[in-house]
Request: fold
Amino acid sequence: MSPLPPQPISPLDGRYRAAVGGIGEHLSEAALNRARVHVEVEWLIALAERRMFGAAPLDDAQAAALREFASGFGEPEIRELARLEATTRHDVKAVEYLVRARLAELGLDRVAELTHFACTSEDINNLAYALTIGAAVHEVWLPRAQEVLAAIEERARAERATPMLAHTHGQPATPTTFGKELAVFAARLARALDRIDDIEILGKFNGATGDYAAHVAADPDADWESISHAFVTGLGLVWNPLTTQIESHDWQAELYAAIAHANRILHNLCTDVWTYISMGYLSQIPQAGATGSSTMPHKINPIRFENAEANLELSTALLNSLAATLVTSRMQRDLTDSTTQRNVGVALGHSLLALDNLARGLGEVAVDREALAADLDVNQEVLAEAIQTVIRAEVVAGRSTISDPYALLKDLTRGHRLTAEELRAFVERLDIGDVAKQRLLALTPATYTGIAERLVDHLE
Reply:
């Protein structure tokens, strides 16, 4: 057997690349290195602007050329970094050498020693990760999640008045509306997404153990805390003044826990929609050319929701691991976070793939109103709750002498399937006021939905 040409190991980089490519733009190794170059360049420019150690500021053209180098980071720089790292065996040092080489090309050797000045690798890394993770979440993951939320809200409003038999413990229960049940998921997801959007992304820039020791040795009169604060916030991040060598990753743990929570809400949606399909409440719209089974031609499998379910599980497992492990670093620094953080893109990629499948899946199902109506019609016993509650109210009001309304309805309905006629005859014989009796006689499982339709307005 001849060997295959090089192949991606992860399906995210193979089969599913088209659906998750946006994450790679921010959380690939190349994207991380692009962000590292950006941080190195901005730090050098910031020091020169402050005329540190007598350095003259870069003119506009020089600063623009350096920034263009950072933003234009591409294939040539990727190849050169690989060559440099083969020698340095250190990824951030390779980035420093790459920047120095560009300075030489631009005739800026005079500021070369400001490259990576007083920095530990983690000064560069933590800011690069903060920038790339923030961009991946806010520019790729959140917009897709919000599209799914909008699709759920749209279906909730469209089906707000569509009555449906509810099931608690898998058994027929007080009816609801299909739209209201979708609205529950929409409200849960909206709250989770708001929490994700609000999480602060922190950064630090304070040297080898977080004490500005090298900075002070070089210039004891400079206000290094103010310089660090201005630099970090200038990148659009929240400044963390108290760290060891590393930024403590607590914001990452908070973010991953929040995304994992959103994943779980979406997972619950997947399992419910899958169940509604299996019950016939939702019908799947055939897709031209699609095959459901290699041997059973009639089948349309709910593969979108199954795929989403599995990828949400993978994403959540990775996010949980990241959140649990990144917050621990031995004393002032260990390198366990170095390899784990490289998997953030994998964790978000699986979630993004799930969102893609959910968005497609929600557009490929339709509510079967006839099936919903038929199921309601054969479960008249769900009106027992309404009847016994009305009787209790009538007893309190002095219009009934029935001694135990709950037991009366339990004997009538538990383990029994009643017809509408049988239930109507039972109500006719009840010792209750005429107004209450007429209200019960007019009630059907399809109309016994309380204010479910109105509750969807909470999505507005």
The chain has three domains: 20-119, 122-286+299-370, 380-444.
